[in-house]
Structure formats: C-alpha cells, structure tokens
Design a protein that fits this description.
Elements lengths: L1 H14 L27 H13 L7 H13 L4 E5 L2 H16 L6 E4 L9 H5 L3 E4 L11 H6 L5 E6 L9 H11 L2 E5 L7 E2 L2 E2 L6 E5 L12 E5 L2 H11 L23 E2 L9 E2 L15 H11 L2 H22 L3 E3 L6 E2 L4 E6 L2 H13 L4 E3 L21 H9 E5 L6 H15 L1
Parallel strand pairs: 2-3, 2-4, 4-5, 5-8
Antiparallel strand pairs: 1-9, 6-7, 6-13, 8-9, 10-11, 12-14, 14-16, 15-16
Length: about 425
C-alpha cells in the first residue's frame, strides 16, 4: 500500500495540480475567466481519489464513503448521514424517506419558495406531495414569513427551507411555527454549508436536511450529496430508498459473508415464503440506485479538512465583492441578512433598481469575463415544466427576482490578482 501511494504521489507531482483546481492557478487577466465558483482542490484530493480507485475492494460505495459520512456528521453536529450521488438525489431521497417514515399521504402539503432551484420542488411532486408556494420578500430574497403562517393548514406536513445563496430566513420564527402546528422543518443546505443562526449551525434547526458536493458548492466530490438527520430510522429508510429499496444495510465485505454484519443475511424474512431468503435481496421499499463512488468519499474526507478555510474566505470575499459593486454601480444593492444570521455565502446576490440595469450590468460583467448567474430559476412557475403547478402571476416578487436579480461569485479561490482585475473592470462601468 505504501509503495502504491508513493507511486501515485510521484505521478501527481509529475503531472502537476489539476486544471480545475482554481485555487492553485495563477490568474491571467488576458485570457482567464473569473468563474463564479469552482472546486477548491489541490493534489491531496487527487491523490486520495486515485488511491481509493486503485486500492479499494470496490469502486462503489464502501469504506471511504462510510468514513466520510462519519466525519461529515461529526463536523456538522448531526448523528446520521447518508451519501448519495448528487445533491438533487439527496433531496429526492430525503423527501421519499420522509413520506415513508412519517406516513405522509398523497396530497399532503409542503411550503416552499417559488424562487431558487427546481430540485426543492420536483421531489415533492414526484412523491405525490403538493408544493404550496409562498412569495419572497425583496430584502433577503427568502420567503415572506408572514405569508408562510397564513398558508399552514391541516394538510401541511413540512416547511422546506432553502437559504438564498447561504442567507437564511428567521429560523426561530420558522421553528416556532413548526412546533406550534406539529409539522417538520426540513432544509436544502446546498448553498449554505457552514451558515449559522444565533451562533448555532443552521443545520441544528432542521429535522432533516441535505447538501450538495457539486463542484460549485462549498466542498466538492465532483458530484455527490448527503442526507442528514438525528433520526436514525429516517436515514435507514433513506439508505434503503437509494439502494434499490432493499432492506439490508450491510456494506462492503460484510455483504460477502455467510451471515453479514447483522447476522441475518440468510434467514426466513419473507412472509408467505417457506424457504430461506437472502436478506441482501429483500426489498421493503420502491427505490433507486443513487449510490456514490468510493473515490468520492475519499475526496470528501480531504475536502472536509479545508472547510474552515473555505468558510472564512467565502465570507471575506463576499464583503470585498459587495464593496466593489457599491462603489462603482449606482442603482444596485446586495440582498441583506438578518441580524442573527451569519451566512457562509455561496454568492453575492445583486438586486438592481430596474430590469434594464440588470440586463446591461450582467451583459457588461460577462463581456469582461466575470461570470454571472441568474438567481437560478427566478419564479419556477414561469418555466414550462412547472407552469401547471400554480399561476406565476400570484407571486410578483418571485417574478421580480427573475427580472431584477442576478449573482456573482465569492469563492475561496479569489486572490489579490482577481480582485485587482475586478476593480479595473468595475471602474470601467463607472466611466
């Protein structure tokens, strides 16, 4: 093993740092784009991934994924974590597991924002649940909590929070609503890993939550996602659903043993069948195959070692980018955070006074190789795949988010060379 690792280290040293590790490259303003985000990697992630690939017993989820799950839970103060192949799969798995575990029925309602990414909404519909949309308010771009309270009915089972680019709504108010009405608070934490509310991790407030390890997010395993909860049975259900729906949770070499980890691999488990059934092939749920690769787990372990550094740099870079737009661009403001919120920003949300300014400023940034993004879908109900869910006209601020809001990045790989270029570009706008 030591010889193999040494060989890999020598190979990586010879090849150099990966081209997608933006933090390891010198920025060239003549040809480089200021990407809104990207993986904060170096040779350690590459070595870990290649080593797991060459020395592991299986390519699929195994020892490295199990270690990453444990380390991730320890870092983010949650007892049970289950890794899947993407953040979108994490939301799909979480919603399906919640419905099964908590006995939710078809037609039960979940309150969501109409603004953001479709992966908070699609899993609800795919699992027979009814999304109930609440318009946003334009200061924070989160949904209007006064409206949320009004839409809670006896069919409401959960409020689904997706903090805007890392910026949370008033978590105490939402938690109080959920407790008073006997419903669950769940979260899509893909943009807000490390965000705090009133000194505590945002994720401490959720019954269940997800995150993504896509290259744009705080930490990356290439693709990948995590479902998290302190409810062990919920995570067991999530694991079953993402592993074809089978009952057995034994992993790795234990699956090859006569008894397996649980000691019940071969036993009389199947009602109505008099023979012996292999527990590994007993299916208690309708599920999917959403398993990650073990090399992704190995990369995740290395990424976790950088998370504190990433968090600090995102916060600092957010403030520097914000100050540049305020200095050089009249008619634009940055979405505000509440007093108790301490966001680990995914991006800098820019709210323009007019749609015309948004179009011109966004085009200007792109023309000068500063990458931008709309605030994802804007009002999702305007999009062809979602128009049937509700009338988009009922949500004027969500529509305004599409016409007046975009964001730029504040990733940890921005250095002084990037900021110097950024300032030169923004000064051109002023002139």
């Amino acid at each position: 093993m030591s010889d193999v690792k040494q060989m890999i280290e020598e190979l990586v040293a010879a090849v150099g740092t990966p081209k997608y590790a933006y933090n390891c490259k010198e920025f060239n303003p003549e040809k480089d784009t200021v990407f809104y985000s990207g993986p904060y990697w170096d040779e350690k992630e590459v070595i870990a991934g290649v080593t797991a690939f060459l020395t592991g017993k299986w390519l699929v989820s195994g020892e490295q994924v199990a270690k990453f799950q444990w380390a991730f839970g320890h870092k983010f103060n949650v007892k049970h974590c289950h890794m899947v192949n993407s953040g979108s799969s994490a939301n799909l798995t979480m919603v399906a597991a919640l419905k099964k575990h908590l006995g939710w029925k078809d037609g039960d309602q979940v309150i969501v924002s109409p603004v953001g990414f479709p992966t908070t909404i699609a899993p609800l519909v795919q699992n027979g649940l009814a999304p109930v949309f609440v318009d946003i308010e334009m200061d924070t771009l989160n949904f209007d909590l006064d409206q949320v309270e009004k839409w809670i009915t006896d069919k409401t089972v959960a409020i689904f929070v997706s903090p805007v680019l890392g910026n949370p709504p008033h978590m105490d108010r939402i938690k109080d609503m959920c407790e008073r009405h006997g419903i669950r608070l769940i979260g899509d934490n893909c943009d807000s890993l490390g965000t705090k509310w009133d000194g505590k991790l945002l994720t401490d407030y959720y019954y269940a939550w997800t995150t993504s390890f896509y290259p744009a997010h705080h930490i990356s395993t290439g693709e990948g996602g995590m479902v998290c909860s302190n409810d062990e049975q919920l995570i067991n259900t999530a694991r079953s659903i993402s592993w074809w729906g089978r009952d057995c949770r034994c992993v790795g070499a234990a699956n090859l043993l006569a008894c397996g980890t649980c000691g019940n691999r071969f036993d009389k488990w199947l009602e109505g069948y008099n023979g012996i059934i292999d527990h590994k092939y007993l299916f208690t749920n309708m599920g999917y195959n959403l398993k990650p690769l073990d090399m992704q787990g190995a990369i995740g372990i290395e990424q976790l070692k950088k998370i504190d550094e990433i968090d600090v740099k995102r916060r600092l870079n957010f403030q520097r980018i914000k100050s540049l737009f305020y200095r050089y661009v009249p008619g634009v403001r940055v979405a505000s955070n509440l007093d108790l919120a301490d966001p680990s920003w995914f991006g800098v949300p820019l709210i323009t006074d007019t749609p015309e300014l948004k179009e011109k400023l966004q085009a200007f940034c792109e023309a000068n190789k500063i990458q931008t993004r709309n605030y994802f879908a804007g009002n999702i109900l305007l999009h062809p795949g979602y128009k049937h869910l509700d009338d988009a006209a009922k949500y004027p601020n969500a529509n305004k988010a599409l016409s007046n809001v975009f964001f730029v990045g504040c990733p940890p790989h921005y250095g002084e060379d990037v900021f110097a270029y950024y300032e030169r570009v923004m000064s051109k706008w002023q002139s």
